[in-house]
């Protein structure tokens, strides 16, 4: 007999991603192309994920050399690899049980790596102390977030747990909240103000949840996904005060901290909280997430992320530790990727020059991409795009004609999903619809990754421009 009836209703009620219909169509189109079916494009540009390597970005040589030597220690004994690569790989292997990346590590991560990650955090935050005991390495930051939500969302409570989350929001987070039996309380970012997070809107959202659930946490993404904004210090201070007043646990998703393109600099929530001083700095409970998936390294597939906990009751931290124990440990290659992200080669190291050149190249490519996207998209009738200050995506708004909206309704689709499906079928570009991430009623968006080579971006924009003009003609 099937176990279907035993499956929790929380899991059954998880909404299917808008993306699923597009993914199915993508598979079919790829198969058609493989079989030689003629289409207006030779291959699909898939920019629906925040996955730089998928989009054609090259891995960093230093990172791959160290990983290669860790996987195949024979490389340590000849001198084909630079000496600092071999030294680093040796040091990392010395921290692995049995000197092998095939072994398990301690639950929270390899102690030496946890130590170096905590030193990175402290350097990043202008000397604010960081204790490796408060850091847990996980198979990706999303997994770490889900583990923390495991503790915060109480599916057995009489009153459903509520988590304030931005709209638009990284979709897997809202899925995790719902899958664990919590509810998402959406707060809208102000698109007109460059996707600013406004505390009045947090207040409105919280009031809207009164009597419907028990709000326990506030989730922020900075720099934003999909919105691409970077929060100012002032905005972060307001959020911290709000979390304190309303007794909300602050979940700060900071995985795009290395991806900043404009004037604003990234400041961590932990640093802002520490600089606000007591009583806030001693009381607001915070979990901050970071990952090797993002930034200019983009090693999504290695699955290395961490969470740092601040001001947590040790009793709560014990439960979190227990939950992490059920995963045994994060993949060792992911842990090593985190070590390399947080401790790159330094000036004077043999690998420094090449490392610097490669990271500068990626950075200048993305800065060029951002400029190009804004110019091109804002030049199209019916499109508008806020400046992209950080993150991995452009998230322009499309003002769809009424006829297109009606047509989408007729075929049972969200209007921006309909647009993305046509863009895929007719131009071979796979972007994500805004409806996937939540958006203000009556507005429509598409999201695409900008951490891609410049020539790929140019081809994407060429196809989008051509497609869009035809689409507007067809539906106006
Ligand atoms: C805001 C945000 N947080 C977390 C993640 C997940 O990252 P990881 O690969 O570390 O699980 C993503 C991935 O796209 C993201 O956009």
UniProtKB/TrEMBL annotation:
One of its GO terms (biological process) is L-alanine catabolic process. Residues 85-464 form the Aminotransferase class I/classII large domain. CDD domains: AAT_like (cd00609). It catalyses: L-alanine + 2-oxoglutarate = pyruvate + L-glutamate. It comes from the Eukaryota. Its cofactor is pyridoxal 5'-phosphate. Keywords: Aminotransferase, Pyridoxal phosphate, Transferase. Pathway: Amino-acid degradation; L-alanine degradation via transaminase pathway; pyruvate from L-alanine: step 1/1. InterPro entries: ALAT1/2-like, Aminotransferase_I/II_large, PyrdxlP-dep_Trfase, PyrdxlP-dep_Trfase_major, PyrdxlP-dep_Trfase_small. One of its GO terms (molecular function) is pyridoxal phosphate binding. Pfam families: Aminotran_1_2. Its EC number is 2.6.1.2. Homodimer. Belongs to the class-I pyridoxal-phosphate-dependent aminotransferase family. Alanine aminotransferase subfamily. PANTHER family: ALANINE AMINOTRANSFERASE, ALANINE TRANSAMINASE. This is alanine transaminase. It comes from Oryzias javanicus. The lineage of its organism: Eukaryota, Metazoa, Chordata, Craniata, Vertebrata.
